[in-house]
Input
Amino acid sequence: MQRTLGLVCALAVAAIGCSDTEPTPQEIEEQGDDTAALTLEGEQITSIVDFDFVSPSFQSELMFERLGLMWDAPGEGAIELRFSSDGNTWSDWYAPTTVFSEEGSFAGHVDAPAGAEFFQYRLASMDGAPTWVNVDAIEHLPPPIEPITESDLGVAQQELTADSIPIHSRAEWGARPPQCSSGTNTAITRATIHHTVTPTVDSMGAKKRLRQIQAFHMFSRGWCDIGYNFLVSRDGRVWRGRGKNVVGAHVANNNTNNVGISFMGTYTSTKANLAQRCRAAKLLAWLHEKHPALHLNRTDVRGHREFGGTSCPGNSLYNQIGGILSLAKQGGCN
Output
């Protein structure tokens, strides 16, 4: 999900298309992409601010109507945002509208004035500064989505079982029901490897991080559910996101019949550990068993960056995909 950071950052924004009519939830879902615009952790957040705790300006490649963000901080009021159309004249400062708050972990968004292309953040204090921030530039405000019940989704939302691997259920991590139907994968032919660009050494724990990501995807991005089909935490556990039968929102315009597998953490320079690689290999082997058209090769199993516009899943994990596939062909680790 991560892009290279400079004092002026070019942000990739996942377009939802241009039309005279409001896009449907299905259109938003199919064109959904998990690409993060800006991710900072630890001293990266505080080292670039001035004496007023204001960051440099960051520029988007396209105008945006919303900035979505996830952050970890001692308190909710740790960060504010402001916007500009030219990098010179700035709006007032705005606190994020919070859509998730749980023991130091937050998600939310700020809707921008018309024509915004630049933004800055301001910290409330150095002592209470966030320890991690993830910002996503959203080109269009998502339309309201009519909620549906879990029972309306039918077989696509049934719990998954795999003989060779435990898949931890949505109930185990406290998932919300989807807020709309995103369609079903009927002929799985591809899988895409991602990373969540969350802290790799994560004090929040996998379950809370999953709830944060889901709330951000649903209520700030406007997606039906968490964007990934499966996630693999640092301890090697496989978590069900949407499950294999449901179309995800993880590669813009390439989501149908494409299973998104996201490694929790950041793998720009850190490698996925053996537990993660073994479990991801078992997951891929099981998916191939259930859907033989998904071949265990680098044509059918790709890193997110191979679709363009992102460095996801980070250089280190990207370079490990071939090895994970070798393990998958053997059925995973012994």
User: Anything to note?
Assistant: The chain has a mean pLDDT of 87.
